[in-house]
Specification:
It is built from 4 helices and no strands. By secondary structure, the chain is mainly alpha-helical. The protein has one domain. The protein is elongated. The termini are far apart.
């Protein structure tokens, strides 16, 4: 497996894990939705948008040729870090 394929597999697993966490957070937040109200909806919309952006970046990496994918890593890492940060922030708000 090439370095590119390993990186893409790692990113896909991390994206799947984060999307799973979003599902769990959504279930937990819905139970207390009256308490969170509009803030909950805004956070969930933000997480869904970041998930879509991260998926798009992963797709872009998958489609990039061997000569171009390394240049896309930095941008992909920024999107991933923002997504992780947002998921963790939302988790902290539900505690």
């Amino acid at each position: 497996m090439s370095k590119r394929d390993e990186y893409i597999a790692k990113m896909k697993q991390q994206l799947d894990d984060l999307n799973s966490q979003i599902g769990e957070l959504e279930t937990k937040a819905k139970a207390g939705q009256a308490e969170f109200g509009k803030k909950y909806e805004e956070q969930m919309a933000n997480l869904r948008e970041l998930s879509s952006t991260a998926k798009a970046k992963m797709d872009e990496l998958m489609e990039a040729g061997e000569d171009k994918w390394e240049a896309l890593i930095t941008e992909g890492e920024k999107v991933h870090k923002a997504f992780v940060h947002s998921v963790n922030y939302f988790k902290s708000q539900l505690k």
